[in-house]
Amino acid sequence: MLKIIMTVAVLLLMITVPPSPSDAYLINGLLDDWGVQPHIQWVPSSGISWIEEDNWGSGHSSFPGGGELYDAEALYAHVTGGMTYVALVTSFPCGGVQSDLPGDFGIDLDLDGVYEYGLKTTGAQAGGLFANPTWMPTTTYTSSSPSRILGGTLIDTQPLVYHQTSIIENGYPTWVIESRFDWTSIGGDPAAPFGLHWTMDCGNDRLDLQVNPVPEPATVLLLAPGLAALWGYSRRRKRSSG
Fold it and tell me: Based on the domain organization, do 177 and 149 belong to the same domain?
């Protein structure tokens, strides 16, 4: 009986324990572990918040200002294991275009349009999570603000890649920005909805995503009483048969 109880416990733990931060997603700019193939399969695996706006622009007429080179195409986020993983697909290159550079991820905890935290995407501090960031406004399309972090308090650094894929769309390579941030550094509620924002300096295109975390299985919390009851039952049977 004890062997059966232990086997059931192990199987349930394997099913219900959420993946640890180290194995949820590989930060490598490849989106196969999200269930995504840019321009082929935009819809991700279940539980992931996402938005896709390939070949049209938020707040602009039918296509990003400046054309394909400025296209912000899709944004994904998934809260799991105490981490939020983010991935963005764009045609905007890591080195920027002329004087316009890529923006950073804005994190809006209260969904009020104020980005209390920011995640750097380029430079020596790429992957850095900033509290109370000072933001640079966009230059051409001001409604797309903010763009880049100019200052703030660095509270954590996680891996980040700005990866040029082999995919070509309308004559330009497709890029993927992929990273994560740790909720323990923020101290917020990882189960509460929040906003993500990204654009480039000019604001020719932007992506805004409301992230709605999917509650992780709570079955593990119910295991202890059930296993204790089974254990007590097996002990009573042993005594009665003895």
Answer: yes
